[in-house]
Amino acid sequence: MERPKILHIDISLVDNAVTLWQKGGLVAMPTETVYGLGADATNGEAVARIYSVKSRPQFNPLIIHVADARAACRYVEWNDTADLLADAFWPGPLTMVLKRRPRSRISELVSAGGETLAVRVPSHPVAQQLLQAFNGAIAAPSANRSGRVSPTTAEHVREELAGDMPLIIDGGACEVGLESTVLDVSGEHPVILRSGSVTQEMIEKVLGKKLATQHTPVAPNNAAHKSPGQLESHYAPSIQVRLNASNVAADEALLAFGAAPLTGAGKTLNLSPSGNLIEAAANLFAYMRALDDTKFRAIAVMPIPNEGIGIAINDRLQRAGAPR
Ligand code: AMP
Ligand code: MG
Question: pLDDT (tens digit, 9 = 90+) per residue, 179-238?
């Protein structure tokens, strides 16, 4: 791929970004917090490419970015708390975690298989311009390789991701320069999952009450110890999961991979008949769910190459297969 261009925003550039997103491509965009690595949140393979480009070893859930609260309501189950907080802090650096709407078109990979979705309305004028034009939801983690600091200029993004990004949109240096505050408002009591520039005090003032549990403040770039992949809310099949299967029984369901799926299973879904790991990642959560049927004794899973995004796939499968 040729050297990515860093460009200032004009209408043709907005069109360019929107077209790339519609085709399943990745575009780096400025927000007031940090630069985001954005993809159409309804396109599973595009979302899988985010993890691949970042070399993330785990499927941590991603934040979706939308133009306004009305757009957010299309994807999540809105509630009064969310309404109050959106009025006070959106557009701005507050991310709210809410329940996914049933039959939401957002890829399950965005929620890492969970029941919730994190959503934010950025205030950066360029992000606003892009999101309004796209008129959908953009999944975007910070535009850096896994384990590196979040980029706050377009040049940082290019240094990090050159070669993998067809388009990096330059909106100048990020004003906040710190990741958004993440607040879980999906339950009865709002809980801060990650601290940011919208503080607990600011939230309590708007809600007119103290937040229930005081969470240990988490350094913005070090959320590792509360990795959402380990949260209970994350999807674990109700039947056994048997990894690295080299044979399969008739009372098992088979999660296959590659051109030569095992035969003899009660039901088979192939993550990628062509052996493409991006396609496999995009299908992973939906297929696990579809095979999770108590009429089967277990889900047998064929070996997945442990390279690239295969590492995150195997991490997730190992957790699903861990003794419970
Ligand atoms: P980043 O990928 O760097 O933008 O960080 C996203 C942050 O949002 C991480 O701390 C995630 O744990 C958090 N997050 C995203 N989606 C969810 C969710 N559904 N539930 C809980 N936390 C979430
Ligand atoms: Mg990050």
Answer: 999 999 999 999 999 999 999 999 999 999 999 765 544 433 333 334 444 444 456 889
Torsion-angle region of 165 (φ positive above 0: left; ψ -120 to 50: alpha; else: beta): beta
Q: Specify the residue with its C-alpha closest to ligand 1, atom 2.
A: 141
CATH of 240-320, one of 3.40.50.11030, 3.40.640.10, 3.90.1150.10, 3.40.50.11890: 3.40.50.11030
Q: Find the 63 Cα to ligand 1 centroid distance in Å.
A: 6
Distance from C-alpha of 195 to C-alpha of 226, rounded to nearest angstrom: 13
Please give the average per-residue pLDDT across 105-130, as a whole number: 96
By most ligand atoms within 8 Å of CB, the mutation choice from 34, 60, 98, 115 for ligand 1 is 60
Judge residue 239's burial from the number of C-beta atoms within 10 Å of its C-beta, 0-12 exposed, 13-18 middle, 19 or more buried: middle
Output DSSP code: residue 79. Answer: -
User: Which of 34, 27, 35 shows the shortest CA–CA distance to 138?
Assistant: 27
C-beta of 106 in contact with ligand 1 (< 6 A): no
Does residue 141's CB lie within 6 angstroms of at least one atom of ligand 1?
Answer: yes
Residues 309-319: tens digit of each pLDDT: 999 999 999 98
CATH 3.90.870.10 fits 11-213, yes or no: yes
55-59, 72-76, 97-101 — which is least confidently predicted?
55-59
The whole-model pTM stands at: 0.88
Instruction: Say yes or no: CB of residue 144 within 6 Å of ligand 1.
Output: no
Domain ranges, ordered by start, for the chain: 11-213, 240-320
